[in-house]
Design goal:
heterodimer; A: alpha/beta; 49% helix; elongated; B: mainly alpha; 5 helices
Amino acid sequence: MPGQQLINGVLLIGILAACISISINNDDPNQAIFIGVLLAAGLLGNLVVLPIGGADMPVVISLLNAFTGLSAAAAGFALDNVALIVAGTLVGSSGTILTMEMATAMNRSVANVLFAGFGGAPSGGGATGSTETRPHVSIGAQDAAIKLAYADTVVIVPGYGLAVAQAQHAIKEVADELEKRGVTVNYAIHPVAGRMPGHMNVLLAEADVPYEQLKEMDEINAELPRTDVAVVIGANDVTNPAAKNDPDSPIAGMPIIEVYEAQQVIVIKRSMSPGFAGIDNDLFYEPNTSMLFDDAKKAAADIAAEIQKL
Amino acid sequence: MSVLAVFEPGGDAATALYIVAFSLFIIGVKQGTHPTTAKRGNLIAAGGMAIAVITTLLLDGMGNWGLIAAGLGVGTAVGVTASVRVRMTEMPQMVALYNGVGGGAVALIAWSEIRHGIASGVEMPLDELIPILFAAVVGSVSFWGSNIAFAKLQDLI
């Protein structure tokens, strides 16, 4: 919505003005104005978060978390309670650090996350003309199972799709089958994969994936050139080489999991549809990439069953 | 004077217990930075919070015990039930919701402080009024923003 920044700005100025008026008349603060401030701030909270896309939610939640901490610290000053000040400051500062780190991981500023409305609607240009007809290779569960079973090292790259399909147990089963055959399996965790900070870690922990197998982006990127097969399951933008190669791309400069460095890539996805950023992923058209079109959970279960049969 | 005079705000016992609680918060946050220790860190921080709550309740001037007990009871019941029932995949929503509740509580505290100030009839010092206003605005933004985040993650909007 084009006028939105304006409305938000007017609201913010109004809130500040009302606060100043209450502070000036501090001999008899006006409760009606105060309630107006509460309501206006609530409306502002609604308006700021409403246009933000799902994939930016981790950053938003972390930022709101920092806000809650700061406001609690302020309440501590008002109530003259040290505990509230200390606890609020701890939450506020750790929330702020987390927010900045996640924004950095997406190569965007916090302001850009809040105000750009990124991904809300395809912003003209490339997204509209993307009736992509480049050739890609499509395979089935059996082929995928063979590629994986005869590999030495496999890296699994999970994304939000894994959470949606609840495929964490199924993918763990694939990993178990592979490990029985002596394949080394690791998981590559992008800092902003999923919908909250640490989403993938929590999800995989629920399926009893050992923590040592969860590798952070920098660590796994060094390993990927020596990896036989990378399995991308439910992730998209965080693997898009356009972030590195195309300076005009909306995700240009975002650090990615460099799966294209692996000998072979299997992408498990329901369709060729673009990810949250609304852009095509060049990875899908690489000669060493195979697409497995299916629901993440079903695909993983099928692959596990096929590996067992080998 | 209460027999618990050492529990006056700033009294020795209260200060000592608060310091223990803060140490536990910091250890908890530190342990939360690694998956293998995160669970323990969470419990340690929760222990710190329990000490902080109990210490605050023992402070001189506390009253309205019925309301406090009711609040603690309802909050505990809702919190425990929700965290036991929530599925791992619904964790983001839960984090958003709980965060919002925190912000909302702060905004309500600010409101009650303003009412206090008005009822007392004396001028509210700015070093009290400004933090109250800050808490009200930011708490309210956080409450509504978190609710929207919850609704989006839950696919309600």
